[in-house]
Specification:
It contains 8 helices and no strands. The protein is an all-alpha fold. The radius of gyration is 15 Å and the shape is globular. The termini are far apart.
Length: 131
């Protein structure tokens, strides 16, 4: 039994985690999950974190990023793709809207997985879009 592999987190399990991690968003997450809109669920968490960013609540944001990383690490391919393509991609917007020192702190506390994905996305954007 020790070698039994942990079940991958699918979108339904991820939604349950997110309802727990984001009690203020529970109603919105529930409604979006009824509509089978996992992308909308991820976007609602991003919007919430952007609001926290405007309030300079960096510690709370970094905590939520680490919680999302836990879902990412244990997620199935769909969950991982959604987190990479929505959640991590939103970091560029965070960077644009944050004070420089806040962005440096967020990046410093960001899990290595997300730093690597974010940096790869930036390199690809530079190649494809000249950004």
């Amino acid at each position: 039994m020790m070698n039994a592999q942990m079940q991958k987190i699918n979108q339904k399990i991820a939604i349950e985690y997110l309802k727990f991690f984001y009690p203020r968003l529970r109603t919105e997450i529930t409604q979006l999950s009824i509509q089978n809109n996992f992308a909308g669920v991820i976007q609602s968490t991003i919007n919430y974190l952007k609001n926290l960013l405007m309030e300079s609540r960096i510690n709370i944001i970094s905590h939520h990023i680490k919680l999302m990383d836990m879902i990412y690490k244990n997620g199935d391919s769909y969950v991982r793709d959604m987190i990479e393509n929505l959640f991590v991609r939103s970091f560029e917007s965070f960077k644009k809207h944050a004070k420089i020192q806040h962005w440096k702190l967020l990046y410093q506390y960001m899990p290595i997985n997300f730093q690597l994905i974010y940096n790869d996305q930036r390199k690809q954007d530079k190649i494809f879009f000249g950004k």
